[in-house]
Fold this protein.
Amino acid sequence: MESRLTPYQASPLIECKEAIVFAPHPDDEALGCGGLLSAYKAAGIPASAVLVTSGDYGEHGKAGTDVRENETRQAATILGLNNVVFWKEKDRSVAVDERTIMAARDAIVQSNADLILTPSINEIHPDHRATAWIVIEAARRLVNEGRELRVAQYEIGAPLTRVDVLVDITAHEKNKRDAIAVYHSQLSISAFDEFIFALNRFRTYTLPAHIKFAEAYNLITPQLLHHPESLCEAEIMRQERLALSDIAVPSAYLFPTHKEPKGILNSLFKSFRGFKN
């Protein structure tokens, strides 16, 4: 049963012709997917980055945006990124609107990437969530125009609830650490490198013992982008709907007590009518 809920085999990378990573702040690209980007560098697969903000807010921005952007350029060299674009959106004020969605769409098209890396919609920082929705909506529109591409959500401040791919980054540990290490302005505030490598270590829980570090990703396929409402489905509901678990959820936890849910939730709940109290 467990293997239906999370991978038990690691992947060397996520296959693609070219990748583009959207990072809400300078350092998110290294923390969230520095191992995968290092794997692309080693494999000769081109990758680029969009930095949505330059991290100008509060304590994290006290070093100044010039410092933070220069740190990103250093990290990009280590990670093998062939291009870095700074949007300079206001930190903690990233908007999900037509302007930013079209900017993301244009960035994806110009990069010719078929894999787009973005933080998860379940991240706790508002800019991380906003970046995710901007990218996903831009990708949805491109898929509806006939483009074949996938979105891979990565984790930083909140672990993914659904994991489709575990990338073995053991061989790329040093490169990822080196890329994170250039962010002196952020590591002087907190040990973000220790936090993320603790998460990367935990992600090997279901993997063979020789794998020491892994990055987790949730893949959004073109099929899912054609049905965007499914992205908001709670993970426990998805598992029940697809019969991924042998343990049924008691009906008291599936049905609202006072009124019927509407829309997609209604169709989801209808599939559980067979459960009894």
